[in-house]
Amino acid sequence: MITLKKLGNNMDIIRPYIEQYGGIFNDLTLGTRFMWGDEFGIEYAIIGDTLIMRETYSEHSSFYYPMGKDVESALAAIEEIAFNTGTGVLAFGCLSEEQTADILRRYPYAEVTNYRDWYDYIYPAAQFKSYAGKKLSGQRNHVNKFKKLYPDYKVNFISEKDIPEIKKFLKEYESENDLSGWAAEEQPRVYALLDNMEYLEQFGIFITVNGKIVSASIGEILGETLFVHVEKALKEYEGAYPMTAQEFAKAFACDRVKFINREEDCGDIGLRISKTQYHPSEIKPKNYVTIKKSFSFICTPVTIDTERLKITDITEQDKDVYATLFTDEEINRFYGYDYRQDLGKNKPDGEYFFNFMQSLKAKKEEYSLAVKKDGKMIGEVVFYNFGYAAETEIGFRFFTEYQGKGYAYESVKAAIKYAFSVGFKKITCRHFKENARSEKLILKLGFIFTREDETHKYYELKK
C-alpha cells in the first residue's frame, strides 16, 4: 500500500518537480508551498519519477495533478490511496483547464467546481514595466506622483543584511493595518519566507525614502512567469504600491519572463478591485474535480426482471435463506469468503448476515442482490470493488439445487446489462483456477481473460 508522507518545510523533495512542472498557478511554487504548507497539510509520495501531493484543509482533501513523466501510474496510485482511506471520494484541486480535461477523460462522471476567490491574476510582464496606455494611466500617474513627492527614494535589492530592517518595516505595516482573515494568517509566514529566501531561491526589493523602508516585495521565477508572493507598503506614502509593483517588474522580469502572476484575492473586495485595476490579461480559474466511487451509479431499490427470474434487493424476509447461502460450505468453497475467518466456529443467525450485508452497502463497498424464482431466493449476484473510472467487479453464488439450470447465466447477464445501462463502463470478475464451471460461464458471458496469479484467473468486460 502506498503511504503519503508529511512534506513539512523540506522543499528539496519537491524542488526538482516544481522547477520542471510547476508554475501553472502560484500554489505550485516553492514560496507558496513553504509559506502555506502547514495550513494545507501537504503530503507527498514519489511514484517512479513522478510526484503526487495531497493537501488537506478544513478536513477536505484533494490531490494536485501529478508532476512528472508517468502520470498514468501516479493517477493509479492516487486512486489506490483514495480507495483505501477516508470517505472513498477522490478529489483533485488546483487544476488548469487542460488538466481538468485530462482528468475528465479518465473519470467521465465527475463534478467540476471552482471558486472565484482563488483565481490567479495574470498580467503581461511588459505592462508592469511601463504602465503604458490609457488603461494604466492611473497607475502611471501614481508612480509619477510618488517620484515627485519623494525625490530621494531609492530602490534596493534585498540581501541578508537587510532582513532585520525589513522585519521592523513589517511591524510598522502591521500596526497601521487592521489585519484579519487571510491577511492575518499571511503575516507570520512572510517573516518565515524572509528568513529562508536564499534556501527557497526567492528575491526581492525594498524602497526607502530618506533611508526609511516604505515598501517591500518578494517573489520568484518559474518558466516564463514572475510570481509576486509578498507586496507591502506604508499607507502614508502615496503611490508606493504601484511604484513597488513596477520596480519589482523592472528588476526581475528579464527577457524570458512573459507574465507576472500576482496571485489570488482570497475574496477580499478591496484587493479584488486593486488587482482588476491593473487590467489582467487572464483571471485564471483553478478547477476542483470530485469523483465518487461508481457505487453511486446504482439507484436503490434495484429491480431486474428476466424471463424466469427477478433480481432485487435482499430484504428482511430473505435473511434466513441468505444466512443458509452464506454458511453452506460447498457453495462457498469457490466464493472467496468464509464467515469462519471472522467468527471462528460460532455460526451466527440470519440477522447477523443481513446486517453485515447492509453495513457493506452503507459503506458503499458492496451491493448484494437476491436472485429469486417464484418469489424464493435461489442465489445472489454481488457488485463490489467499485472504482473511480466507472468500473466494478461482479460475483455470484447459487444454491446447489439451482446450479446447472442456466439461472446463473440468465441472472448475471441481466445484472451486467443493468450495470452498463446505469453508467458502468467496465465490469471485472475472477474465479479460482480449479473452478471450471465458473470459467465456462464467465467466457460464455463474453468476458475477456486478462491475467492470472497463483490462485485466480481474471477477466474484464467493457461496454
Give the termini distance in whole angstroms.
30 Å
User: Percent of residues in helical segments?
Assistant: 25-40%
What would you call the structural class? alpha+beta
Largest sheet: 8 strands, mixed
Give the CA-based shape: elongated
Q: What ranges have pLDDT less than 50 throughout 5 or more consecutive residues?
A: none
Contiguous helical run count: 17
Strand order of the largest sheet: 15-16-17-18-19-20-22-21
| Mean residue pLDDT | 93
Question: Gyration radius, to the nearest Å?
Answer: 31 Å
Q: What percent strand?
A: 25-35%
The count of β-strands is 22
Concise overview:
It contains 17 helices and 22 strands. It is α+β, with helices and mostly antiparallel strands.
